[in-house]
Amino acid sequence: MTTDHLDRSGYTTPLAVRALWRQAPVREFTTDAGERRWLVTGMEQVRAVLSDPRFSRAEAGRLGVTIGPAAVFRKPGINDLDAPEHTRLRRLVAGAFSARRIRSLRPRIQEITDDLIAPLVAAGPPGDLAAALCYPLPVTVVCEILGVPHEDRERFRGWADRVLSTSAYPPEEALSALTSMIGYMAELIDAKRRDPDASLLQDLITARDEQDRLSEDELVTLGCGLLLAGGESTATMLGKGLVALMDHPDQLTALRADPSLVPSAVDEVLRYATLGFRAYSGHIRATTEDVELGGMSIPAHSVVHACLPAANLDPAAFPDPDRFDIARDGGDHVAFGHGMHRCLGAQLAKLELEVAIGSVVAAFPGLRLAVPTEQVPYKEGFLIAGLQALPVTWRS
User: Fold this and answer.
1) Is the separation of the CB atoms in 91 and 344 below 8 Å?
2) What pLDDT, in 10s, does the model give residues 103-162?
3) Peptide bond between residue 372 and the one before it cis (omega within 30 degrees of 0)
4) What beta strand segments (E) does the chain contain?
5) Contact in structure between 275 and 236 (CB atoms under 8 Å)
6) Cα–Cα distance, 266 to 249 (Å, whole number)
7) Buried b vs exposed e over 335-353: b needs ≥16 C-beta within 10 Å?
8) Please, what are the domains in the chain?
9) pTM for this model (two decimals)
10) Given the DSSP bridges, would you call strands 291-293 and 296-298 parallel, antiparallel or unpaired?
């Protein structure tokens, strides 16, 4: 893969992402293996790739393109499928992530957040917000929704780290973790069949056993996929969002003065801060026929990479896109994707970010990074470039 937009760990750098929209919104690039592919960076064109059925997720799989960790499951996951198979699986879980049901979770998410922050406040500065809040909050929430026992959460996080690894762990260790995760999920499903509860996983079991709406492999894969998706991405965005706020003290001051800005601040975080997927790997499709896009002719059976971070910095969509502005009307971003594959847990992730960011700003007066921004440590060798730690200090 070309290296002009990569840092030493293989991730798209923020500077490079911000430069991509200055180039052609649709263009060819060459991988290290000599493959010709297409990179799409304009907002209008990215939305087209993610919503037009001629850009197919399943076709990319048929061409042998690996699409994230789900590609190593025994069966294609929900994100590897096109309609109607994708639609069938999505409908099974969509109800659990409805706006009404997500809103009902706010008191519990607030309670979890308060419990996680309290020891840090009691201990006094400095502290590590990544370990104390950013990682445990989303994992706790998604495990409660799915019905994963509390005592198993740390074990699952160890597996998730390895499954989401690109080079941090040897391939055989990642595969072993995936095998363990699949085995654990199968055992948990059996346990819930013997002792039913009110979890989302129980709803999926009912859909499998009583309605025959999915296979056993699909049931296990969905459970694993929801756990994976519900943890690392939200943790990463929370950490990077807090870094962005502390790196822009005027915005942090404005948010502290007016907490009603929290929802728009979250949207700006999602627009401005990239998850850090490895270059060109995040949203991959392949064309099922010749397609005209952005003034370019893309041949059938071409692999296309939609760069969401660059689209979120497209000046045609967001004036002065390099400026971090929590009062911006930035809700039209594509941080959660677009079209049929838009992230099912988008509303849940936004709620967690709203509760966590609002609570941190209120609980830690004078909050600031304890190290220079460039010294905040990031995890290397993972699909998502999360924070290894978030060292902060504040007025006690």
Assistant:
1) no
2) 889 999 999 999 999 999 999 999 999 999 999 999 999 898 889 888 888 888 888 888
3) no
4) 26-30, 36-40, 55-56, 127-128, 283-287, 291-293, 296-298, 303-306, 368-369, 391-393
5) yes
6) 16
7) bbbbeebebbbebbbbbbb
8) 14-393 (1.10.630.10)
9) 0.87
10) antiparallel
